[in-house]
Amino acid sequence: MTQQIIIGVPGMWKDHKDVVLSIAQANEATSDPTYLAAGQVFADLKTKDAFEFEIYEHDPHMPTAFEVAGQGRFEPDQLKAIADHNLTVYLVCNEPSLQTARAMLGAGEHLLKAGGLGVKVETSGLAHTTDRWRYYAENRTLLSVYDALVTLVGGDEYNYTSGMHAFGLPDVSLTVDVPIEDAPSILNAFNQWHLLEQPTLIDGALFATELDGPCFRVTLCEYGYADDDLTNNPHGRWHLELTDENPVADSPYEQTGEPLFMQLANDDPEVVAAIASARGTLPAFVDHFASPYEYGHYMFKTLLHDGDESAHFWLTLIDASDEALTGAMFEVPPEFPNYHRGQELRIAHGDITDWCIVKNATVIGGFSRRLQRQRVEPANRLAFDLYSGMLSYAPLDELDRS
Q: What span, in angstroms and rounded, lies between the C-alpha atoms of 108 and 106?
């Protein structure tokens, strides 16, 4: 079986003609009409992406499928509306890639504008409410595409992910020897690292998310589903098994419990540029924190003074407004006796020098963090990454909201 991305969107459309007309009418809400449905093709006239277009009659099993695949996100009234659907539109992509996956999110969003009641990703077994799918489609980031198309699955022999063939990549599975509550962050961290950093993986390679955390040996396996199952990944899965081996040898970093400070001069042109970029993209940070569809560890940095001492400190974000961020300190060296761990500070936007979201070991933002990493010797970067628990970096150009 070839790899595919398939989504299904149920709606109250009366017939094929009504579906096509609704798609055309949804274009009228924009000044630049984009989508066209003709025959068995649904096309984006702007990007030239095109998908197979199929329409099926009412399916009495649809509400149950959405309830299960929705993982508790659908309200009873939403499931009732899906139960009353008349037709379901399916879009099929036969050449999955990051580009076509992004395009599929946009196409699904347009079907929702045309009267769709929700979106089910048939090739991963995941379903989304209209608001959640629209958020991912409008957000446009790689991690949003990932969250829209990939899901986690529990199993007796191993826990694993479903849907990475949307990017032309294997999925990942994890030994059940790892506690179930720890599995999601490890599975997602591996997939996001694979997507963003594009490492060259071979059987026997080692993987870890922390310097003092568990280490895994990876082996490429068959996915394990029947070839004709829509959720089967023809690229297989990387299986993670625990090992006592060390992912880095002779690490220059030790988990001492003390903060790791790297001196960056305030007048360094790259530091000045990093601060400007962080302040210029603060709205993206605040929006991410406020979104009900996002998660992660949120931090921001500011310059603090204590007597003759001054340093840039990271704080954990507690609250955000259009004028200021409130955070709690979590790393305080003894040279700053007037500050303590857990202390809450309210910092005006103009005094923010960086911000960072860590989502399954992936860094969003983190401008000074990227600069620090760039200045670490290449041979020590893996140890530096594992020390901080940050393995991959989301593209900075995705923060442009213009």
A: 5
What is d(CA 373, CA 378) in angstroms, rounded to the nearest whole number?
9
Strands (E), 104-204: 119-121, 126-128, 151-153, 158-162, 171-175
Residues in Cβ contact with 155 at an 8 Å cutoff, skipping those fewer than 6 apart: 173, 176
Number of alpha carbons in the 13 Å side-chain half-sphere of residue 342 = 0
- Look at residue 355 and give its three-state secondary structure: strand
pLDDT digits (tens, 9 = 90+) for 284-312: 999 999 999 999 999 999 999 999 999 99
Residue 109's φ and ψ, nearest 5 degrees, are: -60, -40
CA 251 to chain centre: 29
Separation of alpha carbons 189 and 253, rounded Å: 21
Contact indicator for 86, 121 with CB cutoff of 8 Å: no
On the 0-12 / 13-18 / 19+ scale of CB atoms within 10 A, 277 is middle
Whole-number pLDDT of residue 31: 60
Is 5:93 a contact under the CB 8 Å cutoff? yes
Q: What is the mean pLDDT of the chain?
A: 92
Give the strands of the sheet with 158-162, arranged side by side: 151-153, 158-162, 171-175, 237-243, 215-221, 206-208
Compute the distance between CA of residue 40 and CA of residue 258 in angstroms, rounded to an integer: 61
396 close to 139: Cβ distance less than 8 angstroms: no
Q: Tell me phi and psi for residue 325, to 5 degrees.
A: -120, 140
